[in-house]
What we know:
- By secondary structure, the protein is an alpha+beta fold.
- It folds into 5 domains: 23-148, Agglutinin, subunit A (Orthogonal Prism), CATH 2.90.10.10; 158-278, Agglutinin, subunit A; 299-456, Hepatocyte Growth Factor, CATH 3.50.4.10; 492-582, Phosphorylase Kinase, domain 1, CATH 3.30.200.20; 589-792, Orthogonal Bundle (Transferase(Phosphotransferase), domain 1), CATH 1.10.510.
- One 2-acetamido-2-deoxy-beta-D-glucopyranose binds next to strand 31.
Amino acid sequence: MEPAEKASAALVLIASLIGLVGADDNAIGTGSILSATGNTAWLSSSGKFAFGFYKEGSGFAVGIKFFPIPNSHYSTVIWTADRDHQPLSANANLTFGNEGLVLHLDEGDRIITDSYDGSLQLAFASMKNSGNFIVYDSEYNIAWKTFDNPTDTLMAGQKFPIGHNLISSVSENNQSSGRFRFTMQRDGNIVLSPVNTPDTETHAYWALKTIGYNGLVLDDDGSLRLAGLNFSGQPLIPRLNSSQGVSVHFLRMEADGYLRIYSTNQSGLMMVSAQIPADNNKCFIKGACGLNSYCNSTGNGYVNCLCFPGYVYIDRSRVFVGCERNFTRWSCEAVNGSTGNRAFYKISTLHNITWSDDSYNISTVKSDHECSDACFRDCDCYAALFLPSTKLCNKQRYPFQYGRVLLDQDEPTVAFFKVGLAEQENQLSVKPVSRENLRMLGTVPLVLPLLLTATFAIVLDFLIFFLCRYRMGTYRRLCESMETGLAKAMAPRSFSYKQLKDATDGYKEEIGEGIYGKVYRGLLPPCDAGTPIAVKKLKNVRGKVEEKFRNELKSIGRVHHRNLVRLLGFCHEGSDWILVYEYMNRGSLADLIFQSHEAPPSWKQRVSIAMDVARGLYYLHEGCDVAIIHGDIKPENVLIGDDGIAKIGDLGLAKHLQPGNHITYTRPRGTPGYKAPEWAKPCDWVSPKVDVVSFGILLLELLCLKKFWHLQELDGEFNLASWAYKYLKGETKWQVPGGDVDAEELQEMMKVALWCLHGSPEKRPSMYDVVMMLGRKKIVEFPPVPLLDWNNRADSDQPPMADVERG
Ligand SMILES: *[C@@H]1O[C@H](CO)[C@@H](O)[C@H](O)[C@H]1NC(C)=O
Ligand SMILES: *[C@@H]1O[C@H](CO)[C@@H](O)[C@H](O)[C@H]1NC(C)=O
Ligand SMILES: *[C@@H]1O[C@H](CO)[C@@H](O)[C@H](O)[C@H]1NC(C)=O
Ligand SMILES: *[C@@H]1O[C@H](CO)[C@@H](O)[C@H](O)[C@H]1NC(C)=O
Ligand SMILES: *[C@@H]1O[C@H](CO)[C@@H](O)[C@H](O)[C@H]1NC(C)=O
Ligand SMILES: *[C@@H]1O[C@H](CO)[C@@H](O)[C@H](O)[C@H]1NC(C)=O
Ligand SMILES: *[C@@H]1O[C@H](CO)[C@@H](O)[C@H](O)[C@H]1NC(C)=O
Ligand SMILES: *[C@@H]1O[C@H](CO)[C@@H](O)[C@H](O)[C@H]1NC(C)=O
Ligand SMILES: *[C@@H]1O[C@H](CO)[C@@H](O)[C@H](O)[C@H]1NC(C)=O
Ligand SMILES: *[C@@H]1O[C@H](CO)[C@@H](O)[C@H](O)[C@H]1NC(C)=O
């Protein structure tokens, strides 16, 4: 035995003596190893749970399997490490050592217990009979456990704290993240909804409102209980119970969108003892079918996803992904009144269907024909829904979500879809761009097919995961080897108060003032290469706020990107915090576009700045394991360096998400006039999509060299979005300043900006989409009508709130 192994064996012995690892537990000491092909696993003493490699697809995954009857052939996977990782090769090994559970792969090592950030070494682990795999540190504290990181399954006795998600798997045989989620929202609502949607009523297909509880627990008797301030208290309302299951129960968010509780009897027969929602009509599961399609129940528990007229499947082999248009919309100026319309479109009718209402114009009409005609004549109309009982004609925004066939007892509807004519029917010999051409351009029209994006995101995450992992690995090692020159370059360093006072010559030259404090120019001493710096003083950062702020610094410190202003270091004395950033000597984008009217930036420069900002934001949102929301994107916060490269600054406002969560809760923040509509409602959900809106506004300002608001002189339009829409339709004469503007490029970029301003976050492009569209790697569809009641008008808003105080 190696000395380390001896020590660990002793620890395991002591642990079992003091009862941590019960006599019936199998303790796993450091030095233990499993291999993918070794056919071994770490078992619970009951033999019902096995931690180890299991086969998935063409390779392997690491996880926990549950055998209701030990040694029987039936088993089910209850937990998977890194579920969205591609299957592991047969060479993979897993070791347990002082640094935790480490996967050894051909492409390098990965730490599974990576969320453990304590100072003690990890000493032993145990597969419990509850299904929990626990890792202990050398003082016998629980350092990490699988119950804290559930995937789609909750075991009996497992706690499910408020704010957490269970995400369904792709299928029974594929544990990657699927399409549905079960969440106990922070507002107390317990909700089932599609993944990647905000926590709003529109997207929930089952919800239970509770107040004052802070989690759920699946009780040993199979009832799902609401848990109060602590989990050990008396059982609270037994909301959902199950029939008399004899043995272990678990609850699973299933691939088909249902939440089911399972029990097993002594023969090991797995039975469903409760199901939510109770209704077996799967068409009520929002997200059962993707955008631009509708769900038709076949009656025997299956559903059909059918495209709306004029739309075709994005992926014929996975029809639930949704549909896209089989024609390209002609821009309005190409259409010559209704004559032009008739040359390109016809109307197709569908009875008794519905979808999530997103109307931009509702009017009372005399007949269904009048409604169909109104849509036909309106360039902006893609579809209209007519309600015969009330004679209301609802013109709808594109795309269409949560379509389904109505039930017999529902009020009948008539839907009209504008459908592109095929070439031979086309009266003018103008050739529409066919889908094949779109495909050849490597594009998917901007429909945001959630799953396609998700697939890509998984691949991308995978790449980024390795890049980040590699960098962080380097970072850790360098820190251990103390202040080498490289370490200084990698991580923000700590400065003394005096150093900064000297560097700024006693805070002499003020170069700006933000809502948090003043910014000064400084110069590091020659031993630090005489680097120019910007020094930002923050006042009164105390208590809880300070804790948050420290965490913030940790994540910002790790962010490195060409289009983000670097944080070089900080200084902390009392409640004063001073941040040291790289100095950007050409000032802010606001100065450049709003103030230099004699020499406006060239068109080329405007395009390159737009791309810089988009790339920087894309990196913040998707570049690392934690998504960072900037929260205050505006021209004042974009700085221009010597080389003309634009960088996003003031990451101090950044609010980041917990790993695995795609949304976070926060109070309204950001600057009035640049805020997403969803900021306006307090305590509402917030996702990286709020930055997309701010980016859209910034982009319009950058393109037009005008403020978004206060534009009385622009054809009577009061904001740049309505004006840009008019411009795209060829209805305005005002020209964008600058002699060298490329009109075609301008139009494309305006379209991108208008999509960014979409009122519904889920229909807004992600920053990835934006980068692709700006880079002409993706075709930009004609945008929908901009939101009319834009509720963040600068004049109707409260003053901005500082995040350092409110977080
Ligand atoms: C599981 O599903 C994901 C997403 O659809 C896919 O990318 C992955 O290849 C699948 N894995 C296996 C093993 O089939
Ligand atoms: C896994 O272990 C085996 C035997 O110890 C070794 O040959 C193989 O290279 C290891 N694989 C990796 C990826 O480390
Ligand atoms: C936690 O539960 C125990 C009972 O197990 C109870 O006595 C205690 O008051 C509870 N604490 C809180 C904060 O609810
Ligand atoms: C809960 O259990 C009780 C008695 O065991 C039963 O009457 C009731 O119908 C059950 N409720 C549900 C939702 O299954
Ligand atoms: C388990 O359930 C199945 C089906 O309900 C039943 O046929 C079987 O007898 C049960 N076994 C025991 C031991 O209760
Ligand atoms: C829905 O499916 C049924 C058959 O299951 C079919 O008769 C009906 O026409 C379909 N409805 C629509 C609107 O496609
Ligand atoms: C699109 O599909 C519809 C049927 O849904 C068809 O009538 C139309 O001709 C197609 N248009 C093109 C341009 O292929
Ligand atoms: C467009 O409209 C004008 C006048 O309304 C008419 O003269 C012209 O022929 C139309 N063009 C087409 C292509 O229909
Ligand atoms: C709605 O559309 C009708 C024509 O279809 C038009 O007369 C009316 O002005 C529109 N209303 C708004 C608010 O745009
Ligand atoms: C739509 O539903 C109504 C009421 O269920 C029914 O009377 C009508 O025939 C349906 N229309 C079509 C075209 O199926």
